[in-house]
Amino acid sequence: MTTHASRVRRALCPGSFDPVTNGHLDIVGRAALLYDEVVVAVFVNESKSSMFSVEERRAMLEEATAAYGNVRIDAFHGLIVDYCTAHDIPVIVKGLRAVSDFDYELQMAQMNRGLAGVDTLFMPTNPEYSFLASSLVKEITKWGGDVSSLVPAHVLKRLQERTGTTH
To answer: Where does the chain bind ATP (predicted)?
Structure first.
């Protein structure tokens, strides 16, 4: 008989991470304190144009999470619950920036629970990052704005290289 004490507690932090921000890393780091293993999975969506390829996003995440011994990076396409079932992951960790995030995420959480019994842990974002979104980081960088406090240094470098800006 398996007891809860001997079971590895796994969680999934999914997202597009285009690019990874300090807000994402705050959620991943906090999840890493709560779970034995955290899988950060880049969602592959061929119909959406991304600034960075899946491989580039994975590489940036690997570098950004290298200090965590219990975090690993992967990619997935399709239903998130199928990924969770295939990898024995019973919970999804999602950061919430605002009430508007909750409306959408609650529907997804209820659907995931109904489809596959996968629970969702909602983690409020650190207020310092409550406004932060990858799309805003890309837009600000594109126009030469300073996002150095919003992303890790290696991500900033890649953003500047991709957009041809330096700030």
So the answer is: 16-17, 24, 95-97, 105, 129-135
Let me know: does 36 contact 6? Beta carbons within 8 Å: no
* Residue 93 covered by a domain: yes
| CATH code: domain of residue 41 | 3.40.50.620
**In the chain, how many domains are there?**
1
Structure tokens at 82: 């199928």
Beta strand spans in 9-118 (E):
10-15, 37-43, 71-76, 91-96
pTM: 0.92
Binding-site residues for ATP sit at 16-17, 24, 95-97, 105, 129-135
Catalytic residue annotation: 24, 48, 97, 134
Question: Does residue 50 fall inside a structural domain?
Answer: yes
Compute the average pLDDT of residues 25-30: 98
pLDDT digits (tens, 9 = 90+) for 126-143: 999 999 999 999 999 999
Which structural domain, as residue segments, surrounds residue 52?
Answer: 9-131
